[in-house]
Amino acid sequence: MIRELRDFNIRREEVEQLNFLLYGPVGAGKSSVINTIKTIFERRLYINCLAAEGSTSQTIYYKKCEVGNSKDGFLPFIFNDIMGVEEGDQSGVHTDDIISALKGHVKEGYPFNPNSPLTELNHYYLKNPSISDRIHCLVYVIQADKISMMDEDTIQKMQRVREEAKRMALPHVILMTRVDTTCEMTKKDLRSVYKSKRINKKMEECRVALGVQKSCIFPVKNYYEEKDINEDINCLMLDALTKIVHWADDYVAEYSS
Ligand SMILES: Nc1nc2c(ncn2[C@@H]2O[C@H](COP(=O)(O)OP(=O)(O)OP(=O)(O)O)[C@@H](O)[C@H]2O)c(=O)[nH]1
Ligand SMILES: [Mg+2]
């Protein structure tokens, strides 16, 4: 899977990288997903100060993350890290900013402002984005152990973004994190994740809350306390990534502006 992803060729030549936007509640593990993917491809534990515990979002700038390094080469993927969604009008990432990001209007480094969305007047606003600037797959990141406790407001915000993604025919998937804290059996043996009734129930809850079909929901575990590379963590994430990358490529191939 690593080789397949490293050698991945985007069908449309003018697009050099596939763009993924990670979106979900505060503390869902968005930044950790990026650390995990970097860890897999760079074969060393990747720690990023942006992954942290907090009641408000630890990620406050729009950050594009590349995978790979100049020695071994970079993969043709960019992961865009953003502020988490929160309840209420005055906190968390603004829904309009997410929709702008999907369409490619948000430049790297934009400091999110929960009170007011990005406007055309702001110098972080890209007026005429090309297909290369757009997001090619929306990736929801949701904690398996908190899905049933998610407040109505947060769910509604995420549903609004999903409606927009549907209108744009943009693929959208869910990475369901923290399967280790959700199921004891899975914690002991990550390979039994798809046998776990509890995990299956959580996937079903995700499907109902966001209307994303089951085949697009991937239970994963992020690196967070490990001291070494773990192939089981890698396999789950790589399986998800391989599928997601093909769907993003389908979107790019079919998109015509
Ligand atoms: N047990 C466990 N902990 C995790 C997992 N993924 C993330 N965490 C922990 O959850 C906390 C929040 O993770 P982040 O990656 O910072 O979450 P985020 O979505 O980027 O959060 P904000 O940027 O603040 O919105 C960190 O302490 C992580 O170590 C996982 O799969 N299992
Ligand atoms: Mg973060």
TrEMBL record:
Tell me which InterPro entries the record gives. Answer: P-loop_NTPase
Superkingdom, according to UniProt?
Eukaryota
For the biological process aspect of GO, one term held by this record is:
immune response
Q: What is this protein called?
A: G domain-containing protein
Q: What is the lineage of its organism?
A: Eukaryota, Metazoa, Chordata, Craniata, Vertebrata
